Amino acid sequence: MNPFDFNSPITGQKYYNWKNIYPVPYDKATTSPYTKARVILMNGCETEQVFFLHQFSRNCPDNDLRRELAKIRRIEQQQQKLVQCLKPKNENILEETILYELLAVDLTAKLAKCEPDQYVKEALDFALLEDFDHLYRYANLMKLEYGNNAEYLVGKYTEIMPARPTIAHHRHPVDTIRRSTDSEAHTITKLHCNIITAAEQQTMNFYMNVCNLYPSDLGRRLYQEIGMVEEDHVTHYGSLLNTNLTLLENLVMHMYTGCYLYYSCLQSEDNPQAKCVWKECFYQEVANLKLSADLLEKYENKHWSCVISEGAFPELLNLGPNVEYVRDVLKNTVTCTCLKEDYCPVNLMPLDSNFFYYQSIVNSDLDCVPSHNVICDTINKFKIDYRYEKAPNPIVSLQARNVDNITLGRVPDSK
Ligand SMILES: [Fe+2]
Ligand SMILES: [Fe+2]
Ligand SMILES: [Fe+2]
């Protein structure tokens, strides 16, 4: 599929009324966790498009161009409204959170598996383990406060177990910037960087907005802590993006990413309501892609192929389980942290590095670290933590279920 050659049944702008902007939501009891994850992903993709278009407009002196951007943005905003309300009213904040982390785990693993650029793959593997640990922390909050086992939500497709402990994710900001990619990157690498940045940003925004709405102090504190890690993740992935694009080139990249994702969703969807939305949005996105490419021609005299060398989509994204892959990454990189643009096992980090300085401040009182408190409280209540494992944790020091390991990946020479 090459969206530049595709004859979309929608051309120009299709505006909705208040009836057709409100979709039939999915049934949370019968819908696959991956449909739920796709709804989160596409909501994140649209949110990124909307805010990118606002920033573009605020940095553009030409009102004729700003009117064209407003036309594109209005459609993107409609798409976001439509996609977001596929979520049902009865899905609560914590259930939604666990689905956010499921998406983070299985999207990241899927992208990493087919990522041709070794440095980008390492970046994906690195943050994968952290979102995998977040899933475990939130699942324990659910067990502790509601008595529910989160496996009912994630459909037994992913395991739930500790990984690099969340307490070790807190790095100094100077260690969060990666090297950017450039225009020579493969199309699939460009897509991966844009997709994962939008997805992690959606998670960051979600935690920023729901933190104060969560009904317990422990939960609010946990959203604060993990929200800070998501800020790190958005910086980490966002810094991989090509920094040399003009705003119009970047607009074409954004629309192309949207087309690729909607087409991927359409091909892998089994939920009929969601499938209808993906199809309609794909048609709209193609119309906006073509309009963006026309603007690039008109204002910069450039063809879209200077942004995406070939228009045909690479291998499509199909979300699914990645149990063995995640275990492998866990086994091989659990003690890694960041040293400027690179990764380094914590045992080899210089003792005067920014990592240890920052850790000594944010974790100065180990009894006040929410991601640790949630596991201790669960163990106090049930004698063991909550997990969903198909085999013992590949890291021996993470196997005990009556203690929370807070030194691994954080304190040199810890196991
Ligand atoms: Fe869109
Ligand atoms: Fe996360
Ligand atoms: Fe994340």
Characterization of the model:
The chain is mostly helical and 415 residues long. It has one domain. Helices cover 55% and strands 2% of the residues. It contains eleven helices and two strands; from the N terminus they run αααααααααββαα. The chain has helices at residues 33-58, 63-84, 93-113, 118-146, 187-210, 217-238, 247-268, 272-300, 323-333, 354-362, 370-382, and strands at 336-339, 342-345. The protein has a two-stranded antiparallel sheet. Strand 1 and strand 2 form a beta hairpin. It is globular and about 60 Å long. The model has no long low-confidence stretch (mean pLDDT 97). The chain binds fe (ii) ion (FE2) (3 copies). The site of one fe (ii) ion has 6 residues, from helix 1 and helix 2.
Q: Tell me the domain tally.
A: 1
Terminus-to-terminus distance: 49 Å
Shape: globular
Low-pLDDT parts are none
Mind summarizing the main beta sheet?
A: 2 strands, antiparallel
SSE sequence, one letter per element: HHHHHHHHHEEHH
In DSSP terms, counting alpha (H) and pi (I) runs of 4 or more, how many helices? Answer: 11
Number of strands: 2
Average pLDDT reading: 97
Spatial order of the strands forming the largest sheet: 1-2
